[in-house]
Amino acid sequence: MSNTDILPNWEKLVKKQLKTEDIYSILKKENLEGIDVKPFYSEVQKPLANLPKVEENTHLVATYHESLEEDVFAFILDHNVETLEQKTLFVNNKDLAGHISPQEEDQYFSLIDVFDENEGTIDDQLAKELLSKDFKRNICIDIALHQNAGAAIYQQLGFALAKAKELIEVYGPEILNKLIFRIAVGGNYFFEMAKLRAFKIVFNQLSKEYGLNEIPYIFAETSLRNKAIADNENNLIRSTLELASAMIAGADAVFSNNYLVNRSTDISEEISFKQQIVLAYESIINVFEDASNGSYYVEDITRQIAEKAWTLFVEIEEAGGYLALIKQGIIQKNIYDQAVQEQKWVEEGKIKLIGVNLYPKLEVKRSIADLYKEKEIKAVRWAEMFE
């Protein structure tokens, strides 16, 4: 049966079930990204090539704990641990980075962002210190903050490119293969999958502007934005889906933030890491380069997100660049506008957060004005409005 046969039959069936000819207005699903989502896909106009990742297998990253030394191969380090050998280590402390001398058996990556998001400057001394280290990837561009502050998906990617461009202008295009991108993965399962895939496309396009053919190293972590203090079980389900989305999209490393908000226990840390273990070893989804390649839906929204992100990046560059717009407060205002609109959807129930604004429905205790500041980029959870 051809695609031309499938579509009319599908339309006829839905029209019959909905008892209307106007099915597309009913089935249309709004989103705040400005992405056109169809109710049915029978083809993709521009199939995308397989989108590779840097690492052969996605690293499963845990917060360092002595009890995990033998079983875990990738840790986030906030303090120095001299006994580790043959590990992948993500340094998350700039003071620690200055004292590390990598051993041959270990692979070190920096999770330290050299940008001051409030002042619109680059810490040149820190950047040079990190670049002098024998790390696999020396400088992190952190856009997890932007996601948790409420930036749209295409904004997150556009800002990541613009920050990379600022570093190129100071340190040259060769810095592109020394970057690691820290990205928070939210709860919109397929959109977040498409986000990581789209970023590979636009980053590769940026590198080609300099005669290179680079792909980004992506460190993906679970979002804080859709988590709630009194909703632990649902937090666990949300973060598991976020990890799955990141692995399927081909992240090079994944990390699960503790599903307990504002507190941590030994058992919650263990469960948070074992989410990754179950996904990787039961589903084996961390070994594929581009598992969603060929999905008409994911391919289509990947292309749309990539186009919107690149357009925003060009607009930022034409307006003077990321740092200039930070100093003018324009980046902050763009995130603020998006975040406020998103929070309104949460308040109105258009974005459903089970246990917060649905089953049960809690009362609003804080206004949007209490949560967001127009001139500041800060992480805000949706549920804070109700807590």
TrEMBL record:
Residue ranges occupied by any Methylmalonyl-CoA mutase alpha/beta chain catalytic domain in the UniProt entry: 138-368
Top-level division of the source organism's lineage: Bacteria
Pfam families for this protein: MM_CoA_mutase
SUPFAM superfamilies xrefs: Cobalamin (vitamin B12)-dependent enzymes
PANTHER family (alphabetical): METHYLMALONYL-COA MUTASE, LARGE SUBUNIT, METHYLMALONYL-COA MUTASE, MITOCHONDRIAL-RELATED
Designated name of the protein: Methylmalonyl-CoA mutase
Species of the source: Chryseobacterium vrystaatense
Lineage of the organism: Bacteria, Pseudomonadati, Bacteroidota, Flavobacteriia, Flavobacteriales
